[in-house]
Write a structure and sequence with these properties.
This protein has 21 helices and 14 strands. It is an alpha/beta fold and about 600 residues long. It has a five-stranded parallel sheet, with helices on both faces. The chain has a four-stranded antiparallel sheet with strand order 1-2-4-3. Strands 8-9-10 form a three-stranded antiparallel sheet. A hairpin with a 2-residue loop joins strand 3 (about 75-80) and strand 4 (about 80-85).
Amino acid sequence: MHIHNIIQEAAAAAFQKLYDVETDPQTLQVQETRKEFEGDYTLVVFPLTRHSHKSPEQTATDVGEQLIKLNEIETYSVAKGFLNLTIAQSFWHSYLKEAIAEKDLPGFAKPEQPKTIMVEYSSPNTNKPLHLGHIRNILLGYSIAEILKARSHNVIKANLVNDRGIHICKSMLAWQKFGEGKTPESEGIKGDHFVGDYYVVYNTEYQKEMQHMIREGAAPEEAERNAPIQQEARKMLSDWERNDPQVRQLWETMNGWVYEGFEKTYETLGVDFDKFYYESETYLLGKELVLKGLEKGVFFKKEDGSIWVDLADEGLDQKLLLRADGTSVYITQDLGTAQLKFDDYRLDQSVYVVGNEQDYHFKVLSLILKKLEHPVWDKIYHLSYGMVDLPTGKMKSREGTVVDADDLMLEMFEVAEKYTRESGKLAHLEEDERQKLYRQIGLAALKFFILSVDPKKRMTFNPQASIDFQGHTGPFIQYSYARIHSLLAKAKERGLASSELPCPELHSFEIELIKLLYHFGDKLQEAETQMSPAVIAEYGFELAKSYNKFYHELPILPEPDEQKRQFRLRLSEKVGTTLINAMKLLGIEMPERM
């Protein structure tokens, strides 16, 4: 049982005994004691005074006198209406012994009823390569999925590939008009980069044609709508939906190039998926749902033949579901995908990792599904996150000014190599081992920097700041783990290691570390509740920081007292495994040497 629950139940029993008042233990507030006060946990007494009919100080004293009889409580103190409790060292000894025996998380970290949850992330368009914005999406989705798995939920990692639509046709049309038969192989370029270049070519030509039309007297809106290349792209989309064999063949070829490129990026980033969905396979199902809704009177048709939903009663506006020419829009595809996901897995929750510019879209999706009386409507969770900027400002795909994911990772590896070589500690490593280490450090810097920011916040990514070995960074945590690994290796070499866990008097630095270990399960639960890997990132940093303080202030191998030395070695070992487990949830590898 968690110490919070032990205190709650004991306090409720004490209140019953003292004042003959029955109290629900779950309503009693127990929190960690603030650092400026003595104690480990604090019971908030103010709400109890209406039953005790005594001052907050006297009520806290009465309850404290009862709680000190527990084996788990060593001392107590009263500060106004707060009862501060110091946990007995025997409790921390007992916990650490159990924690070392447990290779997994503590039992209270698991929910009583695990759910089946799908986490959809990445969801790229097949008209351009992955960029920095995608990286935040991918890392958030992967980490949340790992956190939910660690919480014992049945998790499906899904990737919905946006492989159809006008934007795809733009790249296809540009290659058809200007590609001259070139391929990624002939040009020596990754397939996703190759296709993305033609998306930029399309927009360059589109701008030229619009400017020409405006100079000829057309209104800007007319030029934007009727530029010849835009008309051709719309026709290509219509031909695609009519299964024109030539258009379909071109589409399959160019998408194939992109998928090969994506797979290489995913592999380098160290992420995976259990299930792929393709909008080209889900949009027809979405159309069926729309047409059924039209038959039932849930939706309505306008004079031009387009189909809409009226959300005025929900405080929103009318939303287009099918265009007049019968082609679908994003919401149509998402309706079909929602249906398919539910059919495949009977989900308890469907998590969409999508930027906050789509907040309105997911609100609309849920409301439409509710109108269709679909069982998944209230199972949708939009993990909304802020945009990623660079110190130089926003990125723009159409202008080709995005930060490419592959280029960014390469830059991170190079920065990691520069910092690591300057340390001069890798002369003993073979070159292939060094290269592996540079990749591990570079990815840790990138992932920690991205994931340590609350998803809801907009952020600015700075590659140089992300890799400081002494800062609030992933490499700092890696370095802390490498220090532990080196310490344990030296202890083994000197014959000082032991499997025993003695019970010496604990130093405050040791208690601080054990308390942090104890709260790993709490932080995992908090990360799930908030849908935020930042909780785990901050926990990992605090654990590493606390260990470094412990390492510098207390002797370990030089400690003459054998019991203290063995205890500190075993404590170090548990901190190391916990750092591995915590960083694994962020997709960060922990090298043994740095």
